[in-house]
Amino acid sequence: MRTVTAPSGTPAAPAGAPAAAPDGQDARPGAAEQEERAFCVRCSEPTEHPASTPGATLCPVCEWQEAERVACSCT
């Protein structure tokens, strides 16, 4: 893959990538509204949930393990 440089000598963004706003902010829609992610209460990995989510948040792996643990195996 070839790196294209802008006239100023800094690397340009790849084709199709969202351009950064002039003030350095992310120009993607909704980027400003994205919240910091909560961390899993068991393994401390980031979760898919926002930090404002009430209760104990679990990452996808720990959620899966918890679901297996509490699932009924009486079939």
Q: Order of helices and strands, N to C?
A: EEH
Biggest β-sheet: strands ordered side by side in the sheet: 1-2
Q: Measured on Cα atoms, how large is the radius of gyration?
A: 20 Å
Beta-strand share of residues: 5-15%
Could you provide a short overview of the structure?
The chain is 15% helix and 11% strand. It has 75 residues and is largely without helices or strands. The relative contact order is 0.11.
What features would you describe in this structure?
The chain is largely without helices or strands and 75 residues long. Helix content is 15%, strand content 11%. A two-stranded antiparallel ribbon has the order 1-2.
Secondary-structure topology with pairs:
Layout: E1 37-39, E2 46-50, H1 60-70
Antiparallel strand pairs: 1-2
Features:
little secondary structure; 75 residues
